[in-house]
Amino acid sequence: MLAEIGLDSIVDVHTHFMPKQVMDKVWAYFDRAGPLTGRRWPIAYRLDESQRVQRLRDFGVAAFTSLVYPHKPDMAEWLNAWAAEFAAATTQCIHTATFFPEPSAPAYVRRAIAHGAKVFKAHVQVGGYSPTDPQLEPVWAVLEEAQIPTVIHAGSGPAPGEFTGPSPVAEVLHRHPALKLIIAHMGMPEYREFIELAYRYAGVYLDTTMVFTDFTEAMHPFPGGAIADLAGLADKVLFGSDFPNIPYPYQHAVESITRLGLGAQWCRKVLYSNAADLLLHDTRGSR
Fold this sequence. Notes:
carboxy-lyase activity, alpha/beta, 12 helices, Amidohydro-rel
C-alpha cells in the first residue's frame, strides 16, 4: 500500500503508550463502553508493550508518539517521567509529555521541554477542563514561545464533554496566535470549524486519527464537501491512528487516507513528511 504512493515508512502522531496500570484502566473503560466512547469499542491490539512497539515497526511506522494524559491533578508530572523513560528506551518514539490545569503545570512543562519533549498531549474530554482555564494560560505561553506542538482532543466526538468544541480553542488561539496545536481527530464532529482554524492560524494542524474509517463514518461522517478543503491544507494534515486502541486493523487507517482521491503527493505529505518536518525536523520534504 505504501509502495504504491512512493513511501517506505510512516510517521504516526497519535499513538498511545502509557504505564501498564493506566493502559489497563483505559482498556477496561473501552470494554464496558463508557460514556465517552459512545458505542461498543473492541481493542484490536491488546498486546504487551514490546509487542505493540514491534507491531508498529512491522507496519512501517518510522516514528510515533506515546500520548499520555491525566484525568486529575498531580498525575501529569508522573506521566511525563514515565514517557521520558519510554522514549529514551524506544528508538522510534517521539518524546511526548502532557499537562493538567494546576499550579505546578508551568514548571513541569518547562522541565519536560528542557528534558527533550517534542510534543505534548491535552485531552479536554477526558480531563474535563477548558483550554481557557486560567491555570493553563502560562502553559500556553511557554509552549507558544518554545514552538512545541500540542495534540489536543477538543472536538465533541466520540461523545461531547462539558468543555469540548471549537470555541474554547479559538479563544486560546486568539490569545496565543503563534501557538502550535495539532487538532486530534480533525476536531470530530466539528470538522468544518476546526478546518477553518487551520486555515486561519499558521500553527494549527489536523490529525486524521480514526477519521475517514468505516467505523467513524458510521457515526460521525466527514462532510464530503470539505474534502476539497483538505487539498488546500496539504502541508497541515498529519496521519494519526489511535493505536493500539482501535477497533479495526491498522492498515485500514492507512487505506482510509489513500482512498480519499487527493493524490499520491498529498498522501506522502500526510503519512510522512508533514509530521517529519514538524516533529523530527526532517527537511527532506515529500518522499
